[in-house]
Design a protein that fits this description.
Blueprint: H1 2-42, H2 46-77, E1 85-89, H3 90-101, E2 110-114, E3 121-126, H4 127-144, E4 148-157, E5 160-167, H5 197-207, E6 211-217, E7 221-229, E8 233-234
Parallel strand pairs: 2-4
Antiparallel strand pairs: 1-3, 3-8, 4-5, 5-7, 6-7
């Protein structure tokens, strides 16, 4: 009983700290959007206007991602996660995500690679939720990689398929490995974002009957993966 009480108290403290942090995370992009919108009204220089528009657009995306993560978490906490299962081409989704992330890899020291070694195949799954998990892996990899490469791809296995994102980023210290997928844990307090992406990804994958995991070495890189039970079929 004492151990359960301590765990409950720790969970409450983490939750309170998380929501306090979220209020700051939401205000940051909101203040940027409001501030640069006001500057945009009185600005006559085309180059400055373009710069302000890019800043506003970037913060719009960040704010939307934060709100979506919070809403997704509330659904998960309530046991309500929407699913729409349908057949789709896995290779096509992989390529779509690659083209979506490619413009966001602005660091010239980082190469973004697409592994095309696995064959085209059709799978029956929730397409949007799969993309959400993959996107979370990709966003984290790009954010944490300052040099080298980020590589995405998938492999076909006997009872399903595995998606992965490999990077040569900062890596994760061994003592933090057991906290990576925890609720209300943020491994890097200095990075923008809710820190909920991996928690939500784990819930989505497990709801589909799959598994999620990673390998990581500090200053070497990380590989995050998700395995889905499915029967891939050749594309007709």
């Amino acid at each position: 009983m004492k151990e359960l009480k301590e765990k409950a108290e720790l969970s409450d403290r983490l939750k309170s700290a998380f929501f306090a942090n979220m209020s700051h995370e939401i205000r940051t992009p909101l203040n940027a959007i409001l501030g640069f919108s006001e500057l945009l009204v009185s600005c006559d220089d085309p180059e400055e206007k373009e710069e302000y528009i890019n800043i506003i657009r970037s913060n719009n995306e960040l704010l939307l991602r934060l709100i979506n993560d919070i809403l997704d978490l509330s659904k998960i906490e309530s046991g309500i996660v929407e699913r729409k299962v349908e057949p789709f081409n896995l290779a096509k989704v992989c390529n779509e995500l690659y083209l979506t992330i490619l413009p966001k890899v602005t660091n010239r020291n980082v190469e973004f690679l697409l592994d095309k070694s696995s064959p085209d195949c059709s799978v029956v799954l929730d397409r949007n939720r799969l993309k959400q998990v993959w996107m979370n892996f990709l966003t984290n990899a790009v954010k944490c990689t300052k040099a080298g490469y980020v590589k995405m791809g998938y492999t076909i296995e006997e009872k399903g398929f595995r998606i992965y994102v490999e990077d040569t980023g900062v890596g994760i210290a061994e003592e933090m490995h057991d906290k990576v997928f925890d609720r209300f844990e943020k491994l890097n307090e200095f990075s923008q974002g809710s820190g909920l992406g991996l928690t939500i990804s784990k819930a989505i994958v497990e709801l589909a009957g799959g598994e999620v995991g990673f390998t990581s070495t500090p200053n070497v890189g990380s590989t995050f993966w998700a395995w889905f039970p499915c029967t891939p079929k050749p594309v007709e």
